[in-house]
Amino acid sequence: MTEYTFPARWCGLLAAIAILAACGGNKPPAVPAGNARPDQYLFQRGDDAMKRSRWLDARQYYQQIVDNYPQSPLRPDAKLGVGDSYLGEGGEANLVLAENEFKEFITFYPTSARVDYAQYKLAMSHFMRMRAPERDQTETVAAVREFEVFFDRYPNSTLTMEVRAKWREARSRLSEASYKVGLYYFRARWYPGAIDRFKEVLKADPGYPGRDAVYYYLAESLLKTDKKPEAVPYYDRLVKEFDRSDYLVDARRKLETLAAQ
């Protein structure tokens, strides 16, 4: 995997984050005089802005609660709202800021009823920065790690099904990245390297949806290194576990040939 160099990747991003954090834009309207619940007024305006995807306006309303009403019961939700506004707006700098907001929430409100939500969104701040399988997978690794923290800490959360679907997508991205490396080795005829990489995918992620291709090319790599008895179980697993696959016909043919031999 390609490693980042700090000056090339982060200097511009950190500068952008500093500008985003410092730039307030147009301030939201002040709370009407005599309002008995200014925090509630601001929170409602923040929610309304979020529904219209007016991310900056929403963030400014929520931030007023966080900054100016430390005793408000709405402050924790406002903190989450700030993070959600960064996620909604998107862009790498905003996603880094969202990550920070959710980390702070978990630190400041560890017993909140919504701390599981914060952990989920912390993982999503990495998930939304994942790159294609052929590129660096640092953010994918971070997303998988934070999703797994969610499963460990909040096993009874009502968000578990939704989180598991996102985890599966991130975990599959990592497996696909490793598979593509193995396929590159296979095509370059470096079969020992391909075998190691394909076996690594199956060990790390036995539920990988694309494992039919892994089975096939692992078996092919074993055949090409004169390890026929080791190849047979992988062809067999492909045939037994998949009703549909681009590799089924060839796998069945190879099994018949090897059985005859």
Describe the model:
- The protein has 261 residues and is an all-alpha fold.
- The protein has 12 helices and no strands.
- The chain has helices spanning 6-22, 38-51, 55-68, 75-89, 92-108, 115-127, 138-153, 160-187, 191-204, 211-224, 228-241, 248-260.
- The two termini are 41 Å apart.
- The relative contact order is 0.06.
- Residues 1-12 and 14-25 have low confidence and may be disordered.
How is the main sheet built?
none
SSE string:
HHHHHHHHHHHH
Distance between the termini: 41 Å
CA-based gyration radius: 25 Å
Secondary structure: number of strands: 0
Mean pLDDT: 91
Helical fraction: over 70%
What's the shape? elongated
Q: Give the percentage of residues in beta strands.
A: under 5%
Please state the structural category.
mainly alpha
How many helical elements? 12
Unreliable runs: 1-12, 14-25
Secondary structure layout plus pairing:
Elements: H1 6-22, H2 38-51, H3 55-68, H4 75-89, H5 92-108, H6 115-127, H7 138-153, H8 160-187, H9 191-204, H10 211-224, H11 228-241, H12 248-260
Helix pairs in contact: 1-5, 2-3, 2-4, 3-4, 4-5, 4-6, 5-6, 6-7, 7-8, 8-9, 9-10, 10-11, 11-12
What is the compact description of this entry?
With 261 residues, the protein is mainly alpha-helical. The chain contains 12 helices and no strands. Mean pLDDT is 91; it is low at 1-12 and 14-25.
Key attributes of the depicted protein:
261 residues; mainly alpha; 0% strand; disordered N terminus
